[in-house]
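FORM 7B: Structural annotation worksheet

SECTION A. Query
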Amino acid sequence: MINKIKRFLDRYLSLPYKITRIQEALGRIEQRQILKDSNSLSGAEFRVFSQWGEDGIIQFLISQIPINKKIFVEFGVEDYQEANTRFLLTNNQWSGLVIDGSESNINNLKKDPIYWASNIKAIDCFITKENINKLLTDNGIAGEIGILSVDIDGNDYWVFNEIDCIEPAIIICEYNSHFGPTAEVTIPYKEDFYRDVDHYSKIYYGASISALNKVAESKGYSLVTSNSVGNNVFFVRDDLLGGLKKVSPEKAYVQSHFREHHDKKGNLTFLSFQERLDKIKHLPLFDIAQDKILPIEEINGIIK
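SECTION B. Predicted structure
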């Protein structure tokens, strides 16, 4: 193991990359111990490059599921310093496509040594439900792949629902826990939706866990877990479930632990969950079950 860590360190000369390689090596050691001691998906969490514990959950899932094509697609990666698939790229030698709407973010990614040292393609494009399938196929992504990660802070439901050119083994989607565990709701579709622009709070975006689960089930996937902070949900293709157990949205739902509400001046407010929800209760959501747009406060299962 020491020799493996040394080889990681020797690959890059700069200190930041040496530190990164130490983190990766320690992550592998920790993950092996977790899998030995626990059968719990939440217990598998650890973080190397992911925002929270997604790296560990992904490592657990790929250890349980046969992956024929070790290819990933991830949307909304910013400059890819923090992402769900970066550890897969460096630790497991997967390849993939990443997409972000910012040209400067993608340019910064292409300056990162990871871009020449790994098999990854990065493109800048604002994703819509109208362009997503063409974006994927034009970049050589079609059919069976390993992982799809959807996190665009806005039209996630609409884009996820539209994708029909790939068959991932695992799908990761960000959900908005402010919308509760049972309501099947999403922001109304707006092609140019920007989370930071459409409402100053920055907590009005995306879809509920039940809305995303509805799409996943229609595509032949089962919900198996969410992360412990309450923002990402994991689906596995039904034919690959094996010993993994399907869970309900209600069971997987976690009320978000982070407090990202902003005031009109752009300052964090550190409000409680209910206080945050009260600030956006007048805003509209599309209720999938009722097939109509309603204010949040009029939708059953959200406002208590």
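SECTION C. Observations
The beta strands are 71-75, 95-100, 120-124, 143-150, 166-174, 185-186, 221-226, 232-237, 284-287, 292-295. The chain has one domain: 66-298.

SECTION D. Sign-off
Analyst initials: ____
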